[in-house]
Amino acid sequence: MLTPLTAREESESLPLWGEGESGELVCRAVWDETADVKTFLFTPATPRLFRFHAGQFMTFHWPLPGGVVSRCYTIATPPTRPYAIGITVKRKPGGVVSPWLHEALRPGMRITAEGPSGIFSAELHGAEKYLFLAGGSGITPLASMLRAFADRGESPDLVFLNAARSPADLIFRDELALIARRLAGLRLLHLVESRAGEPEWPGLTGRLSPELLALIPDLAEREIFCCGPAPFMAAARAALETLGVGLSRYHEESFDFETDGGRATEGAAEEALTAEAPSTAPQAEVPLFTITLAKSGRSFPCRADQTVLAAARAAGIRLPHACTQGLCGSCKSRILSGEIERNHKGGIREREMAQGLALLCCNRPLSDLVIDR
Ligand SMILES: Cc1cc2nc3c(=O)[nH]c(=O)nc-3n(C[C@H](O)[C@H](O)[C@H](O)COP(=O)(O)OP(=O)(O)OC[C@H]3O[C@@H](n4cnc5c(N)ncnc54)[C@H](O)[C@@H]3O)c2cc1C
Ligand code: FES
Cα–Cα distances in Å, from 276 out to 42, 224, 341? Predict the structure, then answer.
């Protein structure tokens, strides 16, 4: 009779799925978190162990009826549980992918994914004291970090503020309360805009404000991680500035296209992308460059104040992309000739840029370009 492998023997024999890799995933389970948030659990189609930093995300290629559409989702489960990854997705009314996930993604379905990627992780900024600010579905990277602390039995001095519209919208409310009972260093604060549905609500009511953050002990000593809707993150930055706390220990991750990067997607979101970075200067003053795609032989105009991806979209040309913020690397392309900006948020490595690669979602041309697409 075969002796079953111990967990350690098994984990040592399995190949790893780490940064910069891709592969096929099988959906294993789907469950509700709140009325408009679900968690989807995936395992690799062939056994592998996930290796990532708590807070990182993956780029998923979803097989929608009209074609494959890519979107990034944070791995909400912790790296201490490497057999599966879970993503927790808020349904965005009018969105292309999230409503489809909620309605159509079922256990047994297979999808492809790339990553993990990203630099929004407490593991990369070790500290003795932390403040996590979570707004709505922005809790996912912070939940991964907290779950990893709990699994490892680490209990740094951590204030975790979980904000939502109402008590029923608080994601992972019960689980956070359970972890808070176990981790001595964790102080959990729930903040809701309205106590609707729970008149006896025992937590905080209102919005993120300087007055609220002023109550947090040793605020200036904390490494701060903030993720949520753009107004939530703006309120966090403004409150810290009002309190005289610099932003040198402040880290944030944005999920929305309304934020700085000009998030934009397929279908309805196309308008936002094509209108991205509109020029306030008269059109005639903005240089116009020609972008040529070497493989397809197609060319299109691109204003100096437009990203290449936005200009391609405006010309009806579809180029690969997912996050549109310079995070995921989905739009990475080789520049065969010409000059382009080189901004990014971790989606490309220095050595790749040295090899002539650039991100088309967040960079504007500095001359005519020929791109290997
Ligand atoms: C690094 C990263 C991690 C992420 N992690 C998570 C996560 O853990 N959980 C999660 O839920 N999401 C996460 N996201 C967001 C996610 O990638 C998707 O953007 C989100 O699910 C919405 O996708 P969608 O296709 O449903 O909506 P989209 O089609 O992209 O539309 C988004 C919203 O914009 C509206 N909209 C579209 N076009 C316009 C327009 N022209 N003008 C005004 N509004 C418009 C839509 O109605 C919709 O409400 C993450 C994003 C990034 C970049
Ligand atoms: S689309 Fe993510 S880096 Fe460009």
Answer: 34, 30, 16
pTM exceeding the 0.85 threshold for the entire prediction: yes
- Which ligand 1 atom sits nearest the alpha carbon of residue 275? 41
* CATH class of the domain comprising 14-117: mainly beta
Protein residue whose Cα sits closest to atom 5 of ligand 1:
73
Q: Which amino acid is at 304?
A: A
The domain locations on the chain are: 14-117, 122-253, 267-371
Report pLDDT digits (tens) over 173-224. Answer: 999 999 999 999 999 999 999 999 999 999 999 999 999 999 999 999 999 9
- Is the beta carbon of 348 within 6 A of some atom in ligand 2? no
Task: Give, using CA atoms, the residue closest to atom 8 of ligand 1.
Answer: 74
Ligand 1 atom 15, closest CA: 255
Instruction: Read off the pLDDT of residues 67-106 as tens digits, 9 standing for 90 and up.
Output: 999 999 999 999 999 999 999 999 999 999 999 999 999 9
Task: Write out the two tokens for 280.
Answer: 């306030």
Task: Report yes or no: 326 and 59 within 8 Å, Cβ to Cβ.
Answer: no
